[in-house]
Write a structure and sequence with these properties.
The complex is a heterodimer of chains A (about 100) and B (about 700).
Chain A: E1 3-5, H1 16-20, E2 26-28, E3 33-35, E4 55-57, H2 67-78, H3 92-98
Antiparallel strand pairs in A: 1-4, 2-3
Chain B: E1 2-3, E2 8-14, E3 24-30, E4 33-39, H1 57-60, E5 71-73, E6 82-84, H2 87-105, E7 110-114, H3 129-135, E8 139-141, H4 147-156, E9 173-177, H5 181-184, H6 189-197, E10 201-205, H7 211-215, E11 218-220, H8 227-240, H9 246-252, E12 253-254, H10 256-264, H11 268-275, H12 279-291, E13 295-299, H13 309-323, E14 332-334, H14 345-349, E15 360-362, H15 366-371, E16 382-386, H16 390-393, H17 397-404, E17 410-415, E18 427-430, E19 439-441, E20 448-452, H18 465-475, H19 487-494, H20 507-513, E21 515-517, E22 541-542, E23 594-597, H21 613-619, E24 623-626, H22 628-631, E25 641-645, E26 650-657, E27 665-668, E28 704-709
Parallel strand pairs in B: 7-16, 8-15, 9-10, 9-13, 10-11, 12-22, 13-14, 16-17, 17-18, 23-27, 24-26
Antiparallel strand pairs in B: 1-2, 2-3, 3-4, 5-6, 5-18, 19-20, 20-21, 23-28, 24-27, 25-26, 25-28
The chains are: A alpha+beta (about 100), B alpha/beta (about 700).
């Protein structure tokens, strides 16, 4: 099992999750982060850290969110590990508001 | 206590589990109900996150299967049929049974059985020691885990805390030896990552390609139980290539010539034959370790779980003194820093109450002690189990179950749930969970002291262990002052608050802050043994141990503070490689061709939380990991159900075929409740009750089995 970063991260990329992760399992690209399922140890420390509730434990994924498991696994192979928090993307706060969070 | 929002009360606490991380908790309480437990974001180890095991911790308190009232058995032993009774009736029954047993057989016919189901000062390992010492029961040696390492550590460096896990952040070469940190020391891992980011090399020595091994720069696969040979082989290279710190060795160690002679017996070629590690890797490891200062070894408990495990811990513990690694912050070795805490064991355990000549029975020998396989006079007529679950966790589970079925055995269990052991009880007593009780939590993995304050009221008639033993003492007519002390007064007397390491720490400051660091120096500056100062009789790191003269011993904390009746079997003053009995049998010499190791589970804490459905989903069912070379001829495929067996017992599991293990090696996890498994059994039905060469520890990793598809 693992945790996955879902769509809410796109365009925000707050990366508070990265600071809370004890195992450095997050990978990053220009718009969002992903979790490497081979490294995640299921501790859930990142879930409350995310301001936009983007991170979900695999079990809690809705049926129409299941594809995020594969997307995270594949993207984690393509993008580099992120070990320290980055500034949020421009427009992150606006998107957060748009998400109602 | 502080008010978090208008409705939520936040109370500070700490994790009760047998884990080196001992997280600082924030209990969130609404209308008297525990709604969430989170990690304290300000605690340097906890860093705001708990772990997968504790995910349902708040809900766990409300698990509908919880034992809430005293019960008595109303069906056959083991049937799980119980009926609610009052505390008065439970205590009166215990008194009546024990009075009869004592009259006929004496007090030693009663044996307690406890371990670290709870890690607190009042309610943990030693919670019942004073009571049972006062009663004059058999002294139970609690050596499930760590006892072999404790003896080895004390023989080599004395009761020192050693290196701080936080100091790993400034190490340049880190060897994680026999520990899957990502499963069992998660909150230590960020310090390893910090070191790695600053250029440190991370080496993992483990028979299995674990999650941790996969994250390392270098995974060295070692045959289980051969760690001493590797450590001695490293010394062979370090000494013969003159890579050791002459000045440190001369000033701060004892017995170098003897160690040199012993290491000379372990040239890399021989070590390679024993350990299965290529010669070139042994040479590289030794040279890199000795050649990189700020080198650290994080020792795991797995090292002790073989017949020669005690000497393996001694040999590994000698390494940083040989290379002078102790001179530097981030240098040295971590075993168990609990020795830094100024615990007053004499108050907590009251060994002065043990009648002279009282016998000792090791808890891992429980099956033999109950069935008569071990001749005992008097026999064990009553067993009192708390903080432990031997049917799942002790080796030789089949014999233990046989013993627990004895009609003439009066068994009492204090428990949270009706476990596989509690099922055999005559009387069940309900225990509190952590949010419902007061305690001080110290730890065997870091240097902070925590106050766990009760956040909610205990449900039903649950009581903390400390109160349980007060009630039992009064029931048995003990009138000592000890039984009139309340929890706060007990805590006051359990520690030496004037010890130098307790600077600034009082019960009052703990109440306010929740946790405080011992005054032992800062992690990135601390060098506890830069100039010796070992806590051995000589004050030096003893390559040749002066304590060996007294023979094998169990450190008194693991045996109710009792100094007498130690095993006393001869111990070589200099660590040696002692081959495992089963693992090292030549091919064909055993009917059981595969060695089985059984480390801790990922989503359970030993057996705790293994009855939570959500945790069962996270952990998955009982599995074995088997190499394709062993699986193929047995027609075992990914997902096949298999029966793992030997002449001691069997259990069933689902197979995962993987090269994470080597040919001839399988891995499973301890912790699944036998009664919830397909076969009604678990791995300890197959393990042997043989002891490690030091400290009477278990040898769970020295276990030959065979496997077949079912």
């Amino acid at each position: 099992m693992t945790h996955v970063v879902t769509d809410n991260c796109r365009g925000c990329r707050y990366t508070d999750c990265v600071a809370s992760c004890p195992v450095a399992c997050f990978h990053v690209n220009e718009v969002r982060v992903y979790i490497d399922p081979a490294v995640c140890i299921d501790c859930s420390a990142c879930i409350p850290a995310c301001p936009v509730h983007a991170i979900v434990e695999e079990f809690d994924l809705a049926d129409d969110q299941q594809h995020w498991i594969r997307i995270n696994a594949e993207a984690a192979q393509r993008y580099p590990v992120i070990r320290a928090r980055l500034p949020p993307l421009d427009g992150a706060d606006a998107r957060r508001q748009q998400l109602g969070l | 206590m502080s008010t978090h929002s208008s409705e939520t009360l936040v109370v500070r606490g700490a994790c009760p589990q047998d884990c080196p991380d001992t997280c600082a908790f924030l209990y969130h309480v609404e209308d008297g109900k525990l709604v969430e437990v989170t990690g304290d974001p300000d605690h340097p180890m906890t860093r705001g996150g708990l772990c997968v095991k504790l995910k349902n911790f708040a809900e766990h308190h409300y698990n509908p299967d919880r034992l809430l009232y005293p019960m008595k058995r109303v069906g056959p032993k083991g049937s799980g049929m119980f009926e609610r009774i009052s505390w008065d009736e439970a205590l009166a029954t215990i008194k009546s049974k024990w009075t009869d047993i004592i009259a006929q057989y004496g007090t030693q016919a009663i044996m307690p059985h406890a371990y670290l189901g709870h890690q607190g000062t009042l309610n943990g390992l030693t919670a019942g020691d004073a009571f049972f010492n006062r009663l004059g029961s058999t002294v139970a040696e609690k050596t499930y885990c760590e006892s072999g390492s404790s003896t080895a550590w004390i023989m080599t460096v004395g009761p020192t805390g050693g290196m701080d896990v936080e100091s790993l952040a400034v190490s340049k070469y880190i060897i994680v030896w026999g520990m899957n940190m990502l499963n069992t020391n998660l909150h230590g891992w960020p310090f390893v990552l910090k070191a790695k980011a600053a250029g440190a090399k991370i080496v993992v020595i483990d028979p299995v390609r674990t999650r941790t091994a996969k994250q390392a720069d270098w995974h060295i696969r070692i045959k289980p139980g051969t760690d001493a040979a590797l450590a001695l082989g490293m010394m062979n290279v370090i000494i013969s290539e003159d890579l050791y710190d002459h000045d440190y060795v001369e000033k701060y160690t004892l017995g170098f010539d003897q160690l040199k002679a012993r290491a000379a017996e372990f040239p890399p070629e021989r070590v390679s034959d024993i350990t299965g590690i290529p010669v070139v890797d042994i040479l590289t490891l030794a040279r890199e370790y000795a050649g990189t200062q700020r080198s650290a070894i994080r020792q795991g408990v797995a090292v002790e779980r073989s017949p020669g495990g005690g000497d393996a811990v001694r040999a590994i513990t000698c390494l940083p003194a040989l290379t002078g690694a102790w001179r530097y912050p981030g240098g040295g070795t971590i075993e168990m820093p609990i020795w830094e805490f100024p615990f007053k064991f004499d108050f907590m355990c009251r060994p002065d109450w043990i009648p002279p000549g009282t016998r000792v029975i090791n808890e891992l020998d429980l099956g033999a002690a109950l069935t008569g396989a071990m001749p005992l006079d008097p026999p064990i007529k009553s067993l009192f189990v708390y903080n432990s679950n031997p049917v799942s966790q002790a080796p030789g589970a089949g014999t233990i179950v046989e013993g627990l079925q004895r009609e003439d055995l009066f068994t009492v269990c204090s428990e949270l749930f009706i476990t596989d052991t509690a099922k055999y009880a005559d009387i069940l007593l309900p225990a509190t969970m952590q949010a419902e009780q007061l305690d001080i939590m110290v730890t065997w993995g870091h240097l902070y002291m925590h106050l766990n304050q009760p956040a909610i009221a205990p449900p039903g008639e649950c009581v903390p262990n400390v109160e349980l033993f007060r009630r039992l003492a009064k029931t048995m007519g003990f009138t000592d002052e000890h039984w009139d002390l309340d929890d706060w007064e007990m805590l006051r007397r359990c520690y030496d608050w004037d010890a130098p390491v307790m600077k600034g720490i009082t019960l009052e400051t703990l109440k306010e802050k929740g946790w405080m660091r011992l005054d032992v120096g800062l992690p990135d500056e601390r060098t506890p043994h830069a100039t010796g100062d070992f806590k051995t009789p000589s004050g030096k790191c003893e390559f040749a141990s002066s304590l060996a003269a007294g023979g094998n011993f169990v450190v008194p904390v693991w045996r109710s503070g009792y100094e007498a009746m130690q095993p006393g079997t001869p111990v070589d003053p200099v660590p040696n490689y002692i081959p495992s009995v089963e693992t090292m049998m030549p091919d064909g010499a055993s009917a059981f061709p595969i060695n089985l190791v059984s480390p801790k589970p990922h989503a359970f804490l030993n057996t705790q939380y293994a009855n939570e459905p959500t945790q069962q989903r996270r952990q998955g069912e009982q599995i074995i990991v088997i190499h394709p070379i062993d699986a193929g001829p047995r027609s075992i495929e990914q997902g096949s159900y298999v029966r793992v067996f030997n002449d001691r017992g069997a259990f069933e599991a689902r197979a995962e075929v993987s090269e994470d293990v080597s040919p001839g090696l399988m891995m499973t996890n301890v912790g699944h409740w036998p009664g919830l498994n397909r076969s009604g059994t678990a791995v300890n039905s197959t393990t042997s009750t043989r002891h490690c060469n030091l400290g009477q520890a278990g040898t769970y990793s020295d276990n030959r089995v065979d496997v077949q598809r079912v």
